[in-house]
């Protein structure tokens, strides 16, 4: 029996226009449904395509910075969604595992379905002991405890669904309950729409000290980065900024 040609090898040798045409046909056949990950992987194998789940390419920058590190462990505060705009979903697919935390009611249902090997906790995080007012939007990526930020979203035309009070918990207490003693944190991602300082102050930086950290720092030019309260706090904890994207900063532990 004559051996069948390897489709992947044939596609790899095909002109880019042929590969792009085949990809377009396959996507059209889906009729608006999400592209299956097996299809994503197949096209990535035979082309220069790199899939990116993060909003600003954070995962692509991390891939370069952490090239020497194998699968590790992450903690994500303000996780939002297991795949959409996620800085850790690509890592999960590569064998990383970790802890996802988000305050939005019902947010962990999707995490339990799409990332069942992670620990998924629905909880607000802050150093404050009193209830916080949580502003929820039709676009849940905008949900925030920051009233001024919420009002700016409304002024920009985003629909606010309502405001509810949520009792927060310090990050150190959540980690004490859910993070195995002695396990390293290779990456911590913080995206909490204005409550970054409350999260940072609520951690025990001696016990829970990530190697790498991604944090959202809104509307801060590069030349003013060092004076931003979030960056100044992390610098005092022994972290140094190594990359800045539009609204995110990546820091590395110096010690």
Provide a descriptive summary of the structure in words.
One of its GO terms (biological process) is methylation. Keywords: Methyltransferase, Plasmid, Transferase. GO terms for molecular function: methyltransferase activity. InterPro entries: FkbM_mtfrase, SAM-dependent_MTases_sf. The chain is of the alpha/beta class and 255 residues long. It folds into two domains: 39 residues, no CATH class; 196 residues, Rossmann fold (3-Layer(aba) Sandwich), CATH 3.40.50.150. Helices cover 32% and strands 19% of the residues. The strands form two sheets. A seven-stranded mixed beta sheet has the order 3-2-1-6-7-9-8, sandwiched between helices. It has a two-stranded antiparallel sheet with strand order 4-5. Strand 6, helix 9 and strand 7 form a beta-alpha-beta unit. It is globular. The mean pLDDT is 87.
Entry keywords:
alpha/beta; two-stranded antiparallel sheet; transferase; Rossmann fold; 2 domains; 255 residues; seven-stranded mixed beta sheet
């Amino acid at each position: 029996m004559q051996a069948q040609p390897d489709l992947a090898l044939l596609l790899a040798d095909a002109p880019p226009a042929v590969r792009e045409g085949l990809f377009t046909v396959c996507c059209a056949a889906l009729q608006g449904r999400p592209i299956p990950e097996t299809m994503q992987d197949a096209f990535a194998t035979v082309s220069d395509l790199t899939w990116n789940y993060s909003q600003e390419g954070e995962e692509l920058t991390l891939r370069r910075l952490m090239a020497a590190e194998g699968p590790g462990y992450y903690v994500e505060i303000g996780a939002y969604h297991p795949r959409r705009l996620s800085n850790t979903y690509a890592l999960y697919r590569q064998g990383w595992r970790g802890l996802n935390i988000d305050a939005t009611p019902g947010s962990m249902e999707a995490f339990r379905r799409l990332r069942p090997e992670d620990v998924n906790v629905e909880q607000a995080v802050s150093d404050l002991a009193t209830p916080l007012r949580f502003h929820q939007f039709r676009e849940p990526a905008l949900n925030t405890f920051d009233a001024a930020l919420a009002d700016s979203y409304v002024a920009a035309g985003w629909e606010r669904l309502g405001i509810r009070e949520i009792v927060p918990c310090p990050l150190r207490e959540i980690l004490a309950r859910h993070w195995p003693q002695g396990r390293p944190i290779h990456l911590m991602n913080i995206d909490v729409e204005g409550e970054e300082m409350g999260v940072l102050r609520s951690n025990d930086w001696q016990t829970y000290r990530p190697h790498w950290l991604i944090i959202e720092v809104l509307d801060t030019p590069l030349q003013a980065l060092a004076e931003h309260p979030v960056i100044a706090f992390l610098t005092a904890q022994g972290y140094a900024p190594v990359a800045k994207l539009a609204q995110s900063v990546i820091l590395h532990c110096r010690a």
